[in-house]
Q: What sequence folds into this?
C-alpha cells in the first residue's frame, strides 16, 4: 500500500544547530515530493519540491535546503537554525495530475 | 498565478449550529479543489475534493462543499457542528508549476466550537 512517513514528530533545537528532517514514501516509484512549512498563525507555504533523484526546486530563498538522495527519500536540512525556522513542517506526495495527495504527520520544530 | 483565499481567519460556532467556511480561488483552468482539516499537532486529512461533474461534493464527517464556477468559490458546509470539528481547515487548488505539480493552499480558517 502507499504510505508516507515523516520523522521526527517533534523537535526542539537551539539556535545555530543543524537540522535534518526525513520523509520516505512506500508503494510507489518516482514520486513528486514536497516540503511545506506552516508558521504560527499562517497557512502552508511551499518550500521545496522534487520530481526525481537529485532534482530540487526551491520556492522561497531561506536558511533551509533539501535533498533527494534516493527515489523515495526527501530530506529537509539546515546548517544553522534560526529562531524564525520554528514551525510545523509537512512532507507531501502529490500525484495523479494533482488529484491525489498524501501528507506526512508533520514535524513540530521549535528553535530556542 | 494560482491563489486561494479564505476570508475568515477564525470562526466560532456553537455545537449543533450550522457551519460554512468560505474559499475563493484564482486559477486559469478548470481547478481541482480540495478541503483539508488539520487537528492540533497533526498532519492534513482530506475531507473532500472536486474534479468535475456534480458541483455539490460530499465528504467525510458529514461535510459537503459546493463548487460555483461563476463565483470562483468552493465553500465548505456542515449542517450541525460537533465539538470534535474544532480544528483548522484549509482549502487548496491543485496546480501545475513548472515541472512540478503542486497544491496551493489558502491561509486556513480556525474553527472553534462552543459547548
A:
Amino acid at each position: 500500500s502507499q504510505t508516507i512517513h515523516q520523522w521526527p514528530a517533534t523537535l526542539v533545537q537551539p539556535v545555530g544547530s543543524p537540522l535534518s528532517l526525513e520523509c520516505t514514501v512506500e508503494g510507489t516509484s518516482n514520486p513528486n515530493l514536497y516540503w511545506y512549512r506552516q508558521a504560527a498563525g499562517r497557512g502552508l507555504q511551499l518550500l521545496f519540491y522534487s520530481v526525481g533523484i537529485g532534482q530540487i526546486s526551491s520556492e522561497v530563498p531561506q536558511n533551509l535546503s533539501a535533498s533527494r538522495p534516493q527515489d523515495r527519500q526527501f530530506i529537509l536540512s539546515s546548517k544553522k537554525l534560526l529562531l524564525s525556522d520554528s514551525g510545523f513542517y509537512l512532507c507531501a506526495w502529490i500525484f495523479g495530475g494533482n488529484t491525489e495527495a498524501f501528507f506526512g504527520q508533520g514535524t513540530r520544530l521549535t528553535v530556542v | 498565478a494560482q491563489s486561494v483565499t479564505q476570508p475568515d481567519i477564525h470562526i466560532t460556532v456553537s455545537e449543533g449550529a450550522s457551519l460554512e467556511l468560505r474559499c475563493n480561488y484564482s486559477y486559469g483552468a478548470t481547478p481541482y479543489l480540495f478541503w483539508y482539516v488539520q487537528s492540533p499537532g497533526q498532519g492534513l486529512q482530506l475531507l473532500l475534493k472536486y474534479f468535475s461533474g456534480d458541483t455539490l461534493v460530499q465528504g467525510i464527517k458529514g461535510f459537503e462543499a459546493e463548487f460555483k464556477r461563476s463565483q470562483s468559490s468552493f465553500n465548505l458546509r456542515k449542517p450541525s457542528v460537533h465539538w470534535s470539528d474544532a480544528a483548522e481547515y484549509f482549502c487548496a487548488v491543485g496546480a501545475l508549476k513548472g515541472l512540478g505539480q503542486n497544491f496551493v493552499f489558502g491561509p486556513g480558517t480556525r474553527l472553534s466550537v462552543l459547548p
